[in-house]
Structures are given as structure tokens and as C-alpha cells.
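User: For documentation purposes, I need each entry recorded in a consistent format: the amino acid sequence on its own, followed directly by the corresponding C-alpha cells. There are two entries in this batch. Please keep commentary to a minimum and don't merge the entries.

Assistant: Recorded as requested. Entry 1:
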Amino acid sequence: MRRVDYMIGLKDFAMLTAEQFMQDVVSYYHVEDMGDKLAGAITEGGFGSVPSLAKDGKVGGIVSEFDLLKTIMEGKDLSKVTAGDIMTRGQVSVPRDTPAPEIIHLLQSKHLIRVAVVDAQGKLVGIVARRDILLGYLRATKPIWTF
């Protein structure tokens, strides 16, 4: 479920947070899952990327279409590399209370499609896609928003 789907009424967009935009049902994989499994999930699920979790449940990185294509171009077999081998590491997650402008900056600076939302322990609680931010903007800034 995308929480932004239930946003009603005008709001200060800059004050909206990751928790208000995020989808709380998230497809994720583990760092030891194989690349071909992730490629199948991404293509069949229509995701641009999926979070990759370490054994402790914390977000270790994110595997994107870009990461998978780069691996193929390097001549590697996706069935022989793990998510941990190819994932984008570093800041690919935000806390629940991260404001919209910070999320947008992260998405743009890292060229991400989606960013994981984590709790205080670094465990996955949701995901925010660029599309969620755009929808949230429209819902927050237009008195009556229709397609």
C-alpha cells in the first residue's frame, strides 16, 4: 500500500516525510540471493530496483536495473553473482522522518529510482519511489487533484 494514496488536503510539501510517501509492502532480497533471481523479480514485478538486506535484517544496499545491466556488460553471468556483489552501497536508505526535499536530493544525486525507508535500527520498513514523491506533491499542493 502506498500511504500517499490516502493523503487528503493541502499540506506544506517540504514538511512531508518519507513515512508519508512510503509503500509499506516491499519486495526485498538478501545479499546472498543470485543476480538472475533479482533480475526476474525486477522485470516481472515492474520495479526499477529492490533493497538487499543483510542477515541481520538491515539494508545493505539496493540492486537496480542499472546494476544488473552493468554486470552483464562486464561479461558476468547473473546466475553466478550475488546481490552483495553487484548492489549499490552507501546511502540508499532514509529514516522515516526524512523530509521530501532531502529524499529528492538523495534520489537525484545517487541516480536512484527508489530509496529504502528504515527504522532506528536500520531495518527496512518501507520504500519511496520517485513516482510516490511526485504523487505526494500533487496531492499536497492541489485542492482537488484528479487524473
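Entry 2:
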Amino acid sequence: MELDRADLKLLDMLQQDGRVTVQALSEAIHLSARATLNRVRKLEAEGVIEGYRALVSRSALGEQICVFAEIALKDQRQAVIQRFEKRMAASPEVVACYIVSGRYDYLVRVACPNLAHYHRLINAWLDDASLGVEKIVTNIELQTIKEFAGFPLPKAA
């Protein structure tokens, strides 16, 4: 789908506030509310907008730690990869998981109530031979400087 200036403006505004009104969007792109809503629905239907979420304050959930775990697998057989990725997707503590290049196969962001919980979690991963985890390097988040708030958008032609 080719994105024009109005589409990019809509995406920018929706990334900043997913609850922005259609009226505010339509005023920003100088189209009627109906035409604006149609554009948003088309962006959703085309998969450009994948969904909407509430950003929950971590501090409101009580004390938590966030950890970045670099994980290397013992082998790259498809069955091992599928089991590992299925386990990551099913783990509520895993808030993000990426295949990466370099010395490790995955970068996993984990949120836990405390270090003891995290330690039990990674020991379970290491002890489960079917997951094929060879090594986990842990990096504890000390402070968040910038959290993901949307992708940078290209300039309209």
C-alpha cells in the first residue's frame, strides 16, 4: 500500500495517541470525518495498523525488574527453534523476543516481580533439554531512558 502525506499524518497521530478522535484526525488532515474514518479502516484492513494497546505503567504494577537475556541455542534444527519460540510466545514474563545476528540467536526482554523469579524462569529454560538452550547472558535494566513509542515514519513524497 502506498502511503501518502495524509496516511502518514494519521499514523503519526495514532502512534502518539491510539484514542485520538476521528474529529481531531480529520481536522489534522483536512478531510471529512467519514473520509478520515475510511482511511483509518483501510490502514487497518491492509495491516498497516496492526492493533491498539493501552500502555500500562510498570510502577503501577508494583516492583518489577526488566532483564534483557541474550540466548544461544545448541543447534539450529527447525524443531528446536519452533519449540523454543513457542515457549517464549507462551511465557507471560517474556514481553519481547527477537531473532538477532551475532554471538547469540535471540534477545529476549523479560519482566519479573524479582530476581529470584527470573532465576527460576531461566533455570527452567536451561533444564528443559527440548528447548536446546546452550547459554543465557543476563543484562539487568537499571533505568529506562526511552521506551518504544512507535516507528519513525518516512517523509511523504
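Summary note for entry 2:
The two ends are 14 Å apart (CA to CA).
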